[in-house]
Amino acid sequence: MENSHISALSAKHAGLDARIKAESSRPMPDTTLVASLKKQKLRLKEEMAAQH
């Protein structure tokens, strides 16, 4: 059960990373959105670290 939770968190982390890259590569990226996505990504990373 715990392993599947970590896998789900990892998948969400990768999805956020892709969204950050996509938004950052736009000609005029939404910096507020990028900052929000980065905060979400950091929270997921911290949660994954706490699971180990």
SSE order and pairing:
Blueprint lengths: L1 H23 L6 H21 L1
Helix pairs in contact: 1-2
Give a structural overview.
This protein is mostly helical. It has helices at 2-24, 31-51. The chain is built from two helices and no strands. Helix 1 runs antiparallel to helix 2. InterPro entries: DUF465, DUF465_sf. It holds the Pfam family DUF465.
Uncertain runs: none
How can the largest sheet be summarized? none
Order of helices and strands: HH
Rg, Cα atoms, Å? 13 Å
Q: Number of helix segments?
A: 2
Which secondary-structure class do the elements indicate? mainly alpha
The pLDDT mean sits at: 94
Name the beta content range: under 5%
* Shape call: elongated
Share of residues in helices? over 70%
Distance between the termini: 13 Å
What's the number of extended β-strand segments? 0
Short description:
It is built from two helices and no strands.
